[in-house]
From TrEMBL:
It is an enzyme of class 2 (transferase). It comes from Thermomonas brevis. Residues 252-386 form the GGDEF domain. NCBIfam families: GGDEF. GO terms for cellular component: plasma membrane. The keyword Nucleotide-binding does not apply. This is diguanylate cyclase. Gene3D superfamilies: 3.30.70.270.
Length: 394
């Protein structure tokens, strides 16, 4: 098989342009997101770099080498910046540009002052290896827990790419090769053709990173109440079911609080729906802040009702916590700009799960207790009388 560099470069060029176009479409789909934008720009810079490799320009060779390598470095800087942003780090613009700039100075020296293809290839291999290691390190070291799978897969591909860049850099070219790098034989073929496969693998790795992020975001949205940012009813019941089953297996107590804001309709009717929404947000945040030190499930059950599940907590402690929450909200009215604050109170029903009880039964008993709290004047806690040792508190 006879291979020569321009052939490989043309194949790489077609591949890179195809990938750059495809990724730009992905970027348009995910409009507004900076990471796909950086990666699409990186792939375009790599495509131009490859195009200049395969299709010689009518300009002096040294200028062509510098411009070509400039696009190569631009591609690497954009890629590592995108990877850093993807894992929630600040893009390392300065460090990456410094590495790219130092590399370009070296390339200028070894193309203008003492032209040496072997040294340029060595430098290219080493610097690209450094960039790929950097990207893999960012993905492995800083991946958020929920994105770990895709980050590990992508890091593996980046490390493979690093190994191929190192191989290509370290393999000596034939002494009289000139631009005919491929004359060095089979290992060089493997390095360059392997590189083409890794371009594809890297594109899929980038797609996997984006797909997992979108899935995590969709899942978060599906579990979140839009108005308050609390867990929504479906997520609350789902997680509650799971925690209740776990507590029952471990023979630990499990309690539930049903919290209902008092006279909420009056807030809407008196100060408007917007003030009602503000009151809901404020109530949730105030109660959540008071619960920060507890390992609990707290979310919006619907309308002006919230539910708190307390795994491992028995009735007496749950009632004490409910009383604390009631007092906290009563002490924190909704402050408004240049208008009187709106006082807020909450009625709370508390229940504890019996052996083998379902979540529905637990909530029904908390609801019955809440009904009694409302009937006996509101702004109070009632603990389910069926639970052992429990009593109402006002
Ligand atoms: N602003 C706003 N109001 C809501 C929202 N969800 C439910 N509501 C209102 O909450 C009010 C609840 O009214 P009621 O069920 O009569 O309860 P209440 O006025 O709090 O009376 P008690 O619970 O008996 O103290 C209704 O007017 C609903 O329209 C919401 O997301 N935003």
């Amino acid at each position: 098989m006879t291979l020569h560099l321009p052939t490989i470069a043309v194949i790489g060029l077609l591949l890179y342009f195809g990938i750059a176009v495809g990724f730009s479409l992905v970027m348009l789909m995910l409009r507004g997101q900076p990471v796909p934008r950086l990666w699409a720009a990186s792939l375009w810079a790599a495509a131009i770099n490859t195009a200049m490799f395969g299709l010689p320009l009518p300009i002096p060779e040294a200028a062509s080498i510098l411009i070509r390598n400039g696009f190569g470095m631009l591609s690497s800087v954009l890629m590592v910046a995108g990877v850093a942003m993807h894992v929630g780090r600040r893009p390392p613009w300065r460090a990456a540009s410094a590495l790219g700039g130092a590399y370009l100075l070296g390339i200028a020296w070894f193309s203008l002052v003492t032209p040496d293809l072997g040294t340029r290839l060595l430098m290219y291999g080493v610097v690209l290896t450094a960039f790929k290691f950097w990207e893999a390190w960012l993905l492995l070291r800083h991946a958020p827990a929920e994105l770990r799978v895709s980050c590990r897969l992508a890091a593996t591909v980046f490390l493979l790419d690093a190994a191929l860049f190192l191989l290509r850099g370290l393999l000596p070219t034939a002494p009289d090769a000139g631009n005919e790098v491929m004359r060095a034989g089979l290992p060089i073929y493997i390095g360059y053709i392997g590189g083409l496969f890794v371009i594809l693998a890297q594109t899929f790795a980038l797609m996997i990173l984006l797909v997992e992020r979108q899935l995590v975001e969709l899942r978060r949205l599906a579990r979140t109440d839009e108005l308050t940012g609390a867990l929504n009813r479906a997520a609350l019941l789902d997680d509650g079911q799971h925690q209740l089953a776990l507590c029952q297996r471990q023979q630990r107590p499990f309690s539930a609080l049903l919290l209902d804001l008092d006279f909420f309709k009056r807030i809407n009717d008196t100060w408007g729906h917007q003030a009602g929404d503000d009151a809901l947000r404020h109530s949730f945040r105030t109660l959540r802040d008071d619960l920060r030190s507890y390992d609990v499930l707290f979310g919006r059950y619907g309308g002006e009702e919230f539910v708190l599940f307390l795994p491992g907590v028995a009735m007496a402690q749950a009632c004490a916590l409910a009383e604390r929450l009631r007092a906290t909200l009563a002490a924190h009215p909704l402050a408004r700009v240049e208008q009187p604050a709106i006082p807020l109170t909450v009625s709370i029903g508390v229940s504890e799960a019996d052996v083998g009880a379902s979540l529905d039964q637990l909530l029904a008993r908390a609801d019955a207790a809440l009904y009694r709290a409302k009937a006996s004047g509101r702004n109070r806690v009632v603990c389910d009388e069926l639970a052992a040792g429990a009593g109402g508190t006002a």
